[in-house]
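Issue 218. Parser rejects a valid record. Input:
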Amino acid sequence: MTEIRPFRALRYDPERVDLSRVVVPPYDVIDAEEREAFLARDPHSAIRLILPGGVGAQQDADYGEVGRLLAEWREAGVLVQEEAPALYGLRQRFTAPDGSELVREAFFSAVRLEDYARRIVRPHERTMSGPKADRLKLLRAAGANLSSIFLLYEDPDEKLAATLAPAFAAGPTWRAVDTAGTEHALTRISDPAVVDAVAHFLAERPVVIADGHHRYETALAHRDACREAQPGAGPDAPFEFTLACFANAYAAGSLLLPIHRVIPGARLPDDATLAERLPGWTATRVEVASPDAVPEALARHLAPLTLAPSFAADDGSGVLRIFARDEVDGELAIRVVHREVVAGVFGLDEAAVRGGAIRYAKDTREAAREARAGAGVVLYVNALSPDDVFRVTGAGEILPQKSTFFVPKLPTGMVFRSLEEGAA
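Output the parser choked on:
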């Protein structure tokens, strides 16, 4: 199914730049203040490639400048291209929200672009036209994949980890620590036997897009345009592939966190009204002394309810209401919460949600502080499981908006992939 190939990475020369000062997060999680800080850190920051026009100003961005910068940096030796194709193992060491230290092992590769209809590369969320048009302008101007797609594969027994273990044990070739404190260690994997084993493993499996839907669909649009312009290019043309980072969804370091729902200006109905609007749900009251106590309370009272639809409501009163009900025909819990709670209790249908009637919060403590400040009602939810993600996408369905939060984010700047012939 999934076809991967080694490629000749275009990368920073660590003799010329400090990788820790030039790598940045994906463009869509960077705000204006962070962009300015990245620009000030180093004149060769990857921010100059992925956000040249500023946050919110992409439609006016001069992406021609990106092509010129890439050419200048290559001529100056700031960027170099690997002589031989390889895969690139990525080991990310990071601190989880609960304070524990985790390690995620993944690898960069070129992956053949597949239409969604073939069910090989599977999306889990819908995209918007604006970001795709923006990223297409950037891709054409750069002639390179500057940011990686993040793909998940199923490997509950961690068979592929055993194949990659010797490469990771050899130690990293390059290393960077980003501004969030995550260490990114990159290892070149060029042993033909290992590369072939990885390729054969993935050839038997589909993959799910964890992050980068807009960039993936941009690459598809670019591929289709290139096919029309170059009908004789053939199936191995560089535009038939894009840069991807693969990780096992079931590995300990593949952290999938929840995204909570904030209903601005809302008030939580009284207990009698809640009981009337939520038939079949049970409720438990849990007192929390402060916003900082909310994560522990959720871990103790909400997290054990992952096998059934459940949520916790926070109106800032210092009391959490923990709700749960029986499973609804195997339906995804977050869907039940949206239908019976967001719509059934607060009157916000799907059209209202798509129109921005609710906000999304990744930081539990920050959401709890907002509730205490009178911002509205927060609905805390449990994280989806890898089984949830693969079950839904395997059925050809899309998850509700903002259902998944994968951490840590992939770094932009550890490797790029040129679309020149011969770069793979």
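Fixed in the parser; the record now loads. The mean pLDDT is 92.
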